[in-house]
Amino acid sequence: MRPEGSTGGPAAATAAVVAKDRAPGRTGLWALAALVALLVAPLFVYPVFLAKVLCFALFATAFNLLLGYAGLLSFGHAAFFGFAAYVSAHATKVWGLTPELGILAGTATAAVMGLVFGVIAIRRQGIYFAMVTLALAQMVYFVSLQAPFTHGEDGIQGVPRGHLFGVIDISSNTATYYLALGVFVLGFLVVYRAIHSPFGQVLKAIRENEARAVSLGYDADKYKLLAFVLSATLAGTAGATKALVFQLASLTDVQWQMSGEVVLMTLLGGVGTVLGPMVGATIIVTMQNYLAHVGSITTIVQGVIFVVCVLLFRRGIVGEVQAYLARRRQGGR
Amino acid sequence: MVEVLGVPLPALLGQLLLALINGSFYAVLSLGLALIFGLLNIINFAHGAFYMLGAFVAWLLLQHVGIGYWPSLVLAPLVVGAFGMVVERLLLRRLYDLDHLYGLLFTFGLALILEGTFRQIYGISGQPYSIPPALSGGTNLGFMFLPYYRGWVILVSVVMCLATWLIIERTKLGALMRAATENPDLVRAFGVNVGLLVTLTYGFGVALAAFAGVLAAPIYSVNPIMGSHLIIIVFAVVVIGGMGSILGAVVSGFLLGLCEGITRVYWPEASSVVIFVIMAIVLVLRPAGLFGRRA
Lengths: 333, 295
Description:
The complex is a heterodimer. In chain A, the strands form two sheets. Chain A has a two-stranded antiparallel ribbon with strand order 1-4. A two-stranded antiparallel sheet of chain A has the order 2-3. Chain A has helices spanning 10-21, 24-40, 47-70, 78-93, 99-121, 126-146, 173-195, 198-208, 210-215, 220-246, 256-269, 276-291, 297-311, 316-332; strands at 156-157, 163-164, 168-169, 248-249. The model of chain A is unreliable at 5-21 (pLDDT under 50). In chain A, a hairpin with a 3-residue loop joins strand 2 (163-164) and strand 3. Chain A is mainly alpha-helical. In chain B, helix 2 (47-65) runs parallel beside helix 4 (100-122). The mean pLDDT of chain B is 89. Chain B is globular and about 65 Å long. In chain B, the strands form two sheets. Chain B has a two-stranded antiparallel sheet with strand order 1-2. In chain B, strands 3-4 form a two-stranded antiparallel ribbon. By secondary structure, chain B is mainly alpha-helical.
């Protein structure tokens, strides 16, 4: 999606150039500082909350790979997130798998679902793509509602966190947080690598002008499908991890509202920016935490944020900051 | 007793009647969606919320002003349609030059606000709305029992769809709308106020949704979340039918309602997903939809 609309563009291009000009060493330094901050964070903040933020940050980052870089708006990502949560909860609780195998099982399920959904949804474009993914996800919701292993309205409760690799006890909240952190960093690196690779460049080319990319010999559908599967897979990883963190997999995670939430996180943080989804996820999860007990206020506030983002700042928080920095740099020259 | 594939005929027909009612709502809602999409290029995610709003306005009119079903059938769509036009004029209009996905996101936000507001005030337990006295009761057709109100819903939905189709295909206004759908710039060059046309179309589509909401109020209870579930099914209906033709939207609405009903008789567990499965199959075999043109 291009926030400037059909006419704009130069500002974003400048921002990209500026970002590239910056010395890679400085980015590395920032990354290191962020990692250190994340490592010591549980000393100051409740670890389960932090782990929740990380799960949603990974979810939104995976979603952004699709929307921000391939230009595909999926309104059904809750299906991957939520169903993977069910699978990993079931695998660890009923089959007694270790947590990392549970997460892998959830991730693998999401990958297969992503492949099936992708093959169907990619046959239509733009708005239709969003509607098709939403409808397919609703199907998964109904399956989750009725399938015996998901336990309907109750969900799968009391999921054991168990021992990582069968050895390391992760039953404490802090240990679980570090597991979530490890999963998040891994997932983030995969996405980072993907968008900074030739694959990511081709995706962007298809987003900007599909016909031209096809004329250059790129099989656009194949690239879109690959991006979709990758995005679905990582969304599954996030959901599977969340099931272990909360020791619960429930219908909330497969509902259409969840698909809307991940769109909102990405939109608020900044579509097509590397850090945006994380910022958006942090803000939304924090907000939900404070508003959780005031009835439907959360829904209303989320709706308002949607409307305001779409009308007033389509670049999102990180996108606006980048654009501001780019403007200042240009002015200073 | 006559049986069809192991199901007694009256039970089967009763289910099919219910299916046709669902089909009526699918048809009226997807008709409005298709109209709006044709002219505004926006998928109105708030369509389900406007449907809910229609039912609520009727209920509020009855509770607080004492206005009954029949006046509400006209008043509620007018009120909700006017609200839709205000939203279009003030907010939605700013998004026309952008990627169409922003229209979807905006209307999604709008739907959340409307639904959240009503849920905050009225909770999620439904409010009852009784069938108007003139249509209560029913008649025995010999092979099945027909409640009058259900027959009325199907009848009035079909009439409404036909009337809309006639307006679009046979009147000057409809001709202008079709022309503006094809090429708004050219129509504007002829001195037609396309902006007004767009506002009216949006208002009309929204009013149709509200009308369906009033029709639904006595059948289902008046509930803040009645629209959000329905709209997702209607999206699938629209994908199956393709948004190229008005008639396609209506026909596929009724057909899919029937498919759902038949599934409910023979395989109840699958009835909630059957429309989505049909959508997936149609997408694989005929990506443009049954009645759609290749975009």
